[in-house]
Amino acid sequence: MNISRGRLYPLLLLLTACGYLWLYVSNDSSRDFYWNGCLTRYLFHIPCPSCGTTRAVQAFFHGEWMKSLYYNPLGILMGTLMVIVPIWIVVDLLIGSSSLLKAYHITETKLQSWPYALAGILAILINWIWNLVKYT
Amino acid sequence: MMMNNKYFPESQIPIIRERLLATDDNRANLLHAVQFKDPTISLILSLLIGGWGIDRFYIGDTGLGIGKLVTCGGFGIWAIIDWFLIMNSTREKNFTRLMSII
């Protein structure tokens, strides 16, 4: 039923690598990109619940916590995961453990139960409304 | 089997048939209560709101759904890749769910 370690770990590493690459590319202000990374904003010209995360993660890595929170609170979560996940995977591979996979499954099961799912949906909706106010 | 074959991967149909034939009636009755996810609905969700990971939430991949949601659909690229992958993923999920019952 659940995703295997052999699929999850490469996928997470790929996502993290893409995240760092995206940060590197976005940091270079001399380049002007037509693609801003968001399909919703591109098609409908409104911000999605995660818009502002790139700026938030950049602020997070510069130690500007309040700025990061203002751009998008998801940035702090993303920044933390981008640091922790690769280290966790390397440690897991070195000691032959599957602790990240177990943690992933536990989190997934928790989030599928109603109280957590409802709290998550509400948080994302509130964040989206805030994004709409900030960025439109 | 004939009515529900669109819910499962084509390559697994013979295995499902064999397992169903070997299953006793009591267990087979349980199957009527199981709801499988429709690959067409997941494709529609993927096309319309795939950028928010709703298609992944629908098939029960909550972790990947959150991954898609917080990255604006994997910078839009993952959302587009999923337009082509989501139907097969749905069938695979249905197959694993069926196998856990019979």
How would you describe this structure to a colleague?
The complex is a heterodimer of chains A (136) and B (102). With 136 residues, chain A is mainly α. Chain A is built from seven helices and no strands. Chain A has helices at 5-27, 39-44, 53-61, 65-71, 74-95, 99-112, 114-135. In chain A, helix 1 packs across helix 5 and helix 3 (53-61) runs antiparallel to helix 4. In chain A, 21% of the residues are buried. Chain B is mainly alpha-helical and 102 residues long. Chain B has a domain at 35-102. Helices cover 70% and strands 0% of the residues of chain B. In chain B, helix 3 (39-49) runs antiparallel to helix 7 (77-101). Chain B is elongated and about 50 Å long. The model of chain B has no long low-confidence stretch (mean pLDDT 87). The A-B interface holds A 1, 3, 11, 15, 18-19, 22, 35, 37-42, 48-51, 53, 74, 77-78, 104, 107-108, 111-112, 124 and B 51-52, 60-64, 66-67, 69-76, 79-80, 93, 96-97, 100.
Features:
heterodimer; A: 136 residues; mainly alpha; 76% helix; B: 102 residues; 7 helices; 70% helix
Distance between the termini of chain A: 41 Å
Mean pLDDT of chain A: 89
Helices and strands of chain B, in N-to-C order?
Answer: HHHHHHH
Oligomer: heterodimer
In the predicted model, the low-confidence regions of chain B spanning at least 5 consecutive residues are: none
Globally, the shape of chain B reads elongated
Question: Concise description?
Answer:
The complex is a heterodimer of chains A (about 140) and B (about 100). Chain A has about 140 residues and is an all-alpha fold. In chain A, about 75% of the residues lie in helices and about 0% in strands.
